[in-house]
Amino acid sequence: MIPQISKITELKENSSTATLFDNIEQFSLSFLAENESGYLKRKLEKDSDCIIFKYPNIFFFSKIKEEKENHLQIEAVRKAGSKLFDLLKAEKIKTVQLINFSKPELTIAFLEGILLSGYSFDKYKKEKDGFHIEEIFIFDKNCTLAQIEELQNLTRAVFYSRDLVNEPLSFLTAPQFSREIEKMGEESGFSVEVFNKKKIEALKMGGLLAVNKGSIDPPTFNILEWKPENAKNEKPVVLVGKGVVFDTGGLSLKPTPKSMDFMKCDMAGGSVVAATVYAAAKNKLPVYVVGLIPATDNRPDGNAYVPGDIITMFDGTTVEVKNTDAEGRLILADALSYAKKYSPTLVIDIATLTGAAEIVAGNQAIVGMGNTKGHLVKIMETGNETYERIIEVPLWEEYAKPLKSDVADLNNLGGREAQSTVAGKFLEHFTDYNWIHLDAAGVSFRFEKDNYIPVGGTGYGTRLLFNFLKTFN
Question: Would you please indicate which residues are annotated as catalytic (active-site) residues?
Answer without folding.
Answer: 254, 329
